[in-house]
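Late entry, evening session. Most of the bench is empty. Finally got around to the prediction I had been postponing all week. Sequence below, unchanged from the version circulated by S.P.
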Amino acid sequence: MKTITNRTLTIILALTFLVAIAVSAAEPGSPEDPLISKSYVETNLIPYVNKVSSYTVVNLSANQMLIGDAGCEIILRMGTATVIATEKGGLCDITLGGDWPHGSAVPANHNLIVPLSDGRGIKADTDIIIMVKGTYTLY
């Protein structure tokens, strides 16, 4: 069993002391210790949280596609659409509890989640109205 020498212990303590000084010396509001102002929260953070935590109504024309990022939620409210899936899987149906594979009909009024940002989404067969929560791209 090895023992720690006095020299090794001194070096470890000195390095620990220097790190502690560096951390405590960070100026509040500096890049090392940033502060967030109330106005930043009100003008940037709250609108972003509201955007990603509430549904947006989106109209798609026939043959238009919506590709969602990971976590994007899609609810078909009117019209017909088809699932766009990848080799890793389809859209997660949290209403029914299942996975919709590529080419299957999107069920109306079911909450579908895009699990990965890998090109999954829906294609409108007719003009459709959907509710979407999260980030997505229209094609």
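Two things to note before I forget:
The mean pLDDT is 88.
The first helix runs from residue 6 to 24.
Will write this up properly tomorrow.
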